[in-house]
Amino acid sequence: MQPNSARGLKVKDFAQLAIEHLKKAGVQYADARLVAQRKERIDVKDDKVEGIADQSSKGIGIRVLDKGAWGFASTSELEAGNVIACADRALEIARASATTLITPVELDERPPQQGSWKSPRTIDPFETPLAQKVELLLKTCRIIREQPGVTTAKGNIMFIGEDKYFIDTEGADLHQDILHSGGGIEALAEKDGDVQKFSHPNSHRGDWGAAGYEWIEGIGLVENAEKTGKGAVELLSAMECPQGEYDLIIAGPQLALQIHESCGHPTELDRALGTEISLAGGSFMTPDRLGKLQYGSDKVNLYGDATIPGALGSFGWDDEGVAAQRFDIVKDGLFVGYQMSRETAKSLGLNSNGTMRADGWARTPLIRMTNINLAYDPKGPTLDELIADTKRGLFMDINKSWSIDDLRLNFSFGCEYARLIEDGKLTALVKNPVYTALTPKFWGACDAVCNADSWRVWGVPNCGKGQPMQTARVAHGCGAARFRGIQVGRKK
Amino acid sequence: MIGQDKIFASLEAVLSAAKNEATIVCDASFSGLTRFANNHIHQNIHTESVDVSIRAKIGDRIGVAATTGLNLARLMETLRRAEAIALAGPPVPGLPPLPGKQDYATVTTYFQKTADFNASDRAEHVKPILSMSKSNGTVASGLLSSGYSEIAVANTSGLRAYAPLTAAELMVIIGDDASSGYAGGVSRNIDEIDTEGAGRRALMKCIQGRRRVEIEPGDYEVVLEHAAVGDALEWLDVIGFGSKTYEEGQSFLTAKQGQKIVGGNISIRDDGYELQALGVPFDFEGVPKEKHDLLKEGVCGACVHDTVTAARNNTQSTGHALSPTEAASGAFPLNLVMDGGDSNLDEMIASVKRGILVTRFHYINGFIDMPKAVLTGMTRDGTFLIEDGKITAGLPSMRFMQSFLDVFNDVKRLSADRKSCAAWWGSTGAYYVPAMQVGKFRFTGVQKEE
Known about the structure:
The structure holds two protein chains of two kinds.
Chain A: H1 5-8, H2 12-24, E1 29-45, E2 48-66, E3 69-75, H3 80-98, E4 114-118, H4 130-145, E5 150-168, E6 173-191, E7 194-200, E8 207-209, H5 213-218, H6 225-236, E9 239-240, E10 244-250, H7 252-264, H8 269-272, E11 302-305, E12 326-331, E13 334-335, H9 342-347, E14 356-357, E15 366-367, E16 372-374, H10 383-388, E17 392-404, E18 410-422, E19 425-431, E20 434-438, H11 439-444, E21 446-449, E22 456-465, E23 470-478, E24 481-488
Parallel strand pairs in A: 4-6, 9-19, 10-17
Antiparallel strand pairs in A: 1-2, 1-5, 2-3, 5-6, 6-7, 6-8, 10-24, 11-12, 11-16, 12-13, 14-15, 17-18, 18-19, 18-20, 20-24, 21-24, 22-23
Helix pairs in contact in A: 2-3, 4-6
Chain B: H1 4-15, E1 21-37, E2 40-58, E3 61-68, H2 72-88, H3 112-116, H4 119-135, E4 139-155, E5 160-175, E6 180-187, H5 195-208, E7 219-224, H6 226-241, H7 243-247, E8 268-270, E9 292-296, E10 299-300, H8 307-312, E11 336-338, H9 345-350, E12 354-369, E13 374-387, E14 390-394, E15 398-403, H10 404-408, E16 411-422, E17 430-446
Parallel strand pairs in B: 7-12
Antiparallel strand pairs in B: 1-2, 1-4, 2-3, 4-5, 5-6, 7-17, 8-9, 8-11, 9-10, 12-13, 13-14, 13-15, 15-17, 16-17
Helix pairs in contact in B: 1-2, 4-5
């Protein structure tokens, strides 16, 4: 089955059916998203295939705003009667919500859009022979395991194709064909109870893009297998992370997650307005601080941009039918903008900037990161120049652990490895590096952002949010940056 | 409810056409979740989904494909995809034959009232919490979910397993600018979810925490309420109790079977027959679940297994297979039960000279140093200073970084009463845990802006 089979089955008619039915019921607003998704996931460990799964899923999610309150219902049973029943249920649920209403929901004004959008791809991963994909991973694992001291070699690739129709009562009629590909490899080495890990090109299922199989060919799994295996083994004899305040240079893969947790999430306006408190919490970046809070140093410029070709957080329209766009979040260190939905933007007298997305047909859209990026400094140093400019510090790379509080202030990150910086040179390898700080203090300590040489977009395929939990694929563009006087190491 | 007969009729139509061995798992769910914030319901959803996954086994090769719905043509196409994947993939040496017909113990998994509970019912149950919060000038956030699912497993060797499951979960956070409090619970039976009582407990914690002091991070004696223990156990499960990290040498249990690694008062097992842990008597291969000791009186038990991990370790499945689409994650215990002691929260607090009461944890991560079971995270929604046996003030949320092997070697008291704490995998499992008092627990930071 191809991910665009929804079109072949003319299932778009079901979305139209639901919307016409709800229009007749006189609802304030409704939208229907019909999604056909296909996922292929291959996991290899050592010389064995741990799992090959090819999953197809199809269904409709219907969202109703009635008398100022929301209801949402979804079903995988695409029969006309079921779809009408699903629409009725969404309306019933909206009416149940309305019984506790305080302030009726209003949506911003936007002209309804029509059109179609397709993410770029060259090679269809679902048509690429399975044996070829499996052999790629087995080969990388063979090379990793050839490195003396490696105890486990792992590789994974995954492809997600999504064919999506969006229709609403205001006249939007949109079709999107989105394909995401990603993968990575990992080596484990163990000695005397110490286990070390080294990943390429990134940890937590590797690196991802909006692309086809060519993405997998481009991330150099085979070419970096030897380095990955050796990296894990070398860490066993590395020095433990020192404890104290160090100047910290953070490389792109780790800085991407730093941006994700300490800028991306706290600037989701639903969080800032308190509607995500029951899971991940609120945000210290509250609306009264918009335009006033000095979030970071003047080197810090953060922005969202869902229009970057090939980036994992790019699309044509969000799941409210708002066009993908670029917007500032932090400008010269000042907090200037949120990620917003139609409802939350209206509450601030603003317009949505197109960040509402849902995890498949069975979930209601939430504000999700798109591509949330740290702008490179055109006059900044290269990474080599930045290291050369650092007297005593640590260079940290590849995330291993992450934790941040419910206001996004106090965080702790661990990386797979670090290197000491002494008198402008990378020296000893460091294992189990961790750093901890408070968000505004941390970004305030950013005194250098690298130039375009080291800037690229890193895909994050597993951003969790909401209840029930939803997983979003987002991305972060960044290069390396330096932060002065950051607490590193575990207190003994 | 689709019903056992209809589901098996669909699955058997596919199995009868299979030319090789095959296992089919059907997970049909009908669930609702009402979410509230700022003292009103802001998200309210209903989902009906029929997820079917097929694992084809051709000799020593395996392929998995999945679809939605019970449409026969679609299921047949999914079987063919699974077979094609199996044929294209490399062999998995040593695979055992599929398990045949099994006998399952009767476990209570279904309550009609929970299944029938709808959005209006949930709204009615939530309203007293919202009113209570409004009248106290606080803000209520949380969720109430309810619904049912049907899990069916069938294979070409005659195995047929079926369980209807219900589950309801409540989470309440009541807060203001100065403080917040949490209460919650999970049960198969909606009647066991005391929404109003939970609202009162959350409100009381919020009010109690308004007089706030700040203390220096460091080592403190702690009393961990049930929810905090459940939060920690969920992460210990992820990093240590499944077969994947065990086999990879990353688990704190690896190669320690039979060794005493924590205090003799610590016993944790997986129990698929425990109602309070939302037990299900079989796994996703249809194998009956073994009551499995992971830590018994401080001594390490054996690793859990599914049929594949069991085969490569020359042992038998313990009934801990995950869904075929999640097979790469290995075998995993979903229904952890921790033994209690003879104490209670009041006694624990009264015995602390100077320490900290933790209601719950937030955003734990256990990947820092897995063999040592080091967890970091924050406290949240009810962190209190205990002085001379009394709660004297609220504390800001605090960061901890702590080996839980050290914690489990230093447990001074366990409560006799245990509570069910929700797990992220929903209706197929939960944690059933006591509260505990720990002699020394390391806090490394505080939630603040400067």
